[in-house]
Here is the input.
Amino acid sequence: MPELPEVETVVQKLRLVLPGNTLSDFHLVWPKVLSNIESNQFSSSIAGQLIRSVERRGKYIIIRLTRGLIAVHLRMTGRLYAVRQPIDLDHRHVTGWFQCENGIRLVLQDMRKFGRISFHQDLQWLEEKLGPEPLGEQFTAQWLSARLSCSGRQMKALLLDQGFIAGLGNIYTDESLWHARIHPKTAGKDVTLQKAERLHDGIRRILRQAIDSGGTTFLNYESEPGVSGSYRNRLQVFNRSGKSCPRCGTGIIKTRVSNRGTYLCPSCQGEPV
DNA sequence: CAGAGCACCTGTGGGC
DNA sequence: TGCCCACAGGTGCTCT
Here is the structure.
């Protein structure tokens, strides 16, 4: 579900209420939600710990404690939100929640139960597996062009690979490739410098606009209960098969690339070289 | 190495 | 209306 802009929106909301609070307990509902630690050990590891900050790295939500950190990945349908204890919301699909000493609860609700929570001492494990942040300084057009030129993989697969760039998912990959007029099956090394520059520009511009819109909502994603993102109204190709390309008017088609549903303009994005 | 297929889960929407 | 199938914003694994 959530890609970088949706996760960033969640992090921005949590940042307003969590830092400064002290965790007291973790309540496990769906056993598999804890990916690298046993429930009792997790509860005792976080009990009494101060939440220092809430950050994002790729699609991971990072909650820094006095000692160690909690990482949450929402996968397809996860939501993470804070509620005041007296407010009893619809508790369907809750896979686990954190209790804070001041009464605030941090709830993970996840229809498909793919979302995961893990506990770590530092971020080294993540830095080893993720590529650069697309909105960070390391992600430049030169870097992108150089990395593309030495890969025979399809562009769609490359952009979805979190080890290549961290944070893009199916929606923003299709939107970015449309922006740069690149067919998703094009091999990385066949992308010209000019198109790599356009892609770099598109990725950053699209992600920033999506963050400003609070992300994209289809079925599930809400940064908190009742709050959906409006970037859906600004999508150019994703989920718009049969509608006309905003640039040239040609009908947008849906195909399958890299085993994912993929939207593109057959005119603007031509055939792969 | 690159790509396909499947597993993990539950819900929804389209076709008949 | 109801049933069945395909598909869903992600990731990790196996197999070819």
